[in-house]
Fold this protein.
Amino acid sequence: MIQTERKRALVTGTSGQDGSYLLELLLAKGYEVHGMIRRASLFNTERIDHLYQDPHDEGARFFGHYGDMTDSSVLARLVEKIKPDEVYNLAAQSHVRVSFDLPDYTADTTAMGALRLLDALRDHVQRTRREVRYYQAGSSEMFGAAPPPQDETTPFHPRSPYGVAKVAAHWFGVNYRESYGLFICNGILFNHESPRRGETFVTRKITRALGRIAEGLQDKLFLGNLDAQRDWGFAGDYVEAMWLMLQQETPDDYVVATGESYSVRDFLEEAFGHAGLDWQTHVEFDPRYLRPAEVDHLEGDASKAEKALGWKPKTSFKQLVAMMVDHDRDMARRERTLVDAGHALPQSSRD
Ligand code: NDP
Ligand code: GDR
């Protein structure tokens, strides 16, 4: 019997929201997956701990490696050592408002990091003549001020250091594809959320606070601009589009979105409504959460992805909100039990 070799994937940003869903997808498809993890003084792998496999075990298919997008030598070493068939570049300083505080670092990880990885790939492919397929995690933030609906032909007009860095990473990808014939796909993904979403993004900030409010653990939620409109989908659906892009005959760039947009106020209405609460009695304005330049309205047209990849979102806005609220109410109930048992929980100020 002919034994076909397993596909090997290298994923940066493995410990993030999308990394965790992509890891599940690739492992379910039989891949050997190598995840790049950056060193932190505390464990930062909570989202992927359930996927941990002892590398000593025969049959282990997930392997973690220390690395950082700011360190070109480790990127080159990982590509050489792993010899991946597919590379998914998900690592980034991904918080838009924080990118105004950390513009240099954001550009270094998000734009230059992508370039470093592409360069490692280029050397590897030129030397070994192997085909390696590369996915770049681009963002609707690249469209910024361009009016909706946005698709692959919409000109970019980014409004933050993060958006500008993602535009650079996008064009580095296009340039390396055109210059060196590499198989590079740029995904242009609109906002996607889940119960694993970082707690400082607005959807999760709302559902976490809502759970705690329902359990009497906090009373107020401070937010910035409630008028911004976003096209929110479910992260679990979106990682499938990433994988599909790399399975095509030719590399291309695709918008991935639901085609519907809602304001932050709509999200509050839907989330608090699902829990039978009135958001207006709990939400207060804090100008700290305003951005120097805002992106007002994102709504994607993903018809190209539907036609070429056969991809469509499976989860509706209503289902997404309910999933996040139910998860975070459950989390708050557990927190309540600990508090009732006399454990004082520290309040996080990182919002
Ligand atoms: P997260 O912020 O949840 O995850 C980002 C990941 O990048 C984390 O694993 C993080 O590590 C890692 N990382 C950050 N800086 C570095 C660095 N210097 N070196 C190595 N790793 C680093 O983002 P998401 O999972 O939501 O998004 C994945 C990618 O998709 C990002 O590039 C994001 O910009 C992009 N994107 C996201 C969208 C969304 O709506 N979620 C939409 C469009 C694009 P650690 O865990 O240690 O912090
Ligand atoms: P975004 O997501 O900037 O779209 O980037 P975020 O959830 O941070 O903001 C969405 C909108 O909500 C408004 N907002 C607030 N945002 C936060 N974080 N905190 C608040 O208190 C708050 N109040 C109002 C914002 O002004 C904004 O208009 C996300 C990230 O995942 C990027 O990495 C990704 O590329 C894009 O989505 C697509």
Observations:
- The chain has ten helices and 13 strands.
- The pocket of NDP (ligand 1) is lined by residues 12-19, 38, 40, 44, 68-70, 90-94, 109, 137, 139, 189, 191-192, 198 (CB under 6 Å).
- The first helix runs from residue 17 to 28.
- The chain has two domains: 8-197+232-256, 202-226+262-295+315-349.
